[in-house]
Amino acid sequence: MKCYRKILRIPWTARRTNQNILQELGMKERQLLKNIKQLKLKYFGHVVRHNNLEKLCLEGAVEGRRGRGRPRRRWTQDISDWLGFSVREASILAQDRDGFRSAVWEATSYKDAP
């Protein structure tokens, strides 16, 4: 919603509801996050289907000790959270393009809240 407010040049101090902003943009739901999720998941499927440097970086591990503080959120954590599988299971599923497409569609479609 912050990006939508920026596009419309609405200051954060303005008291406008999210529904009002979506109506002004002519949208029913928040499409930006859905599009980002879809693109990220599609790129993951593309990377794991090919043997290249990106796949090596994705599956590789760095030796040594990690730095102090809370660990940063990893790219693969988003993938496993959105799909509901581990990264290993998701990479196996990505070998079947049609099955992976349906899993991506399922992960990015909004469910109606009761």
Structural overview:
- By secondary structure, the chain is mainly α.
- 61% of the residues lie in helices and 0% in strands.
- It is built from 7 helices and no strands.
- It has helices at 2-8, 18-25, 31-49, 53-59, 75-83, 87-94, 97-108.
- The model has no long low-confidence stretch (mean pLDDT 85).
- One of its GO terms (molecular function) is endonuclease activity.
- Keywords: Endonuclease, Hydrolase, Nuclease.
- This is Endonuclease-reverse transcriptase.
Spell out the helices and strands N to C.
HHHHHHH
Strand content: under 5%
What is the count of β-strands? 0
Shape category: extended
> What's the rounded overall pLDDT mean?
85
Largest sheet: none
Radius of gyration (Å): 18 Å
Classify the helix fraction into a percent range.
55-70%
Structural class: mainly alpha
Number of helices: 7
Gap between N and C termini, in Å?
23 Å
Organism: Elysia marginata
Keywords: Endonuclease, Hydrolase, Nuclease
GO molecular function: endonuclease activity
Protein name: Endonuclease-reverse transcriptase
Question: Which properties best describe this structure?
Answer:
single chain; 114 residues; mainly alpha
Summed up, what is this model?
This is Endonuclease-reverse transcriptase. The protein is mainly α and 114 residues long. It has helices spanning 2-8, 18-25, 31-49, 53-59, 75-83, 87-94, 97-108.
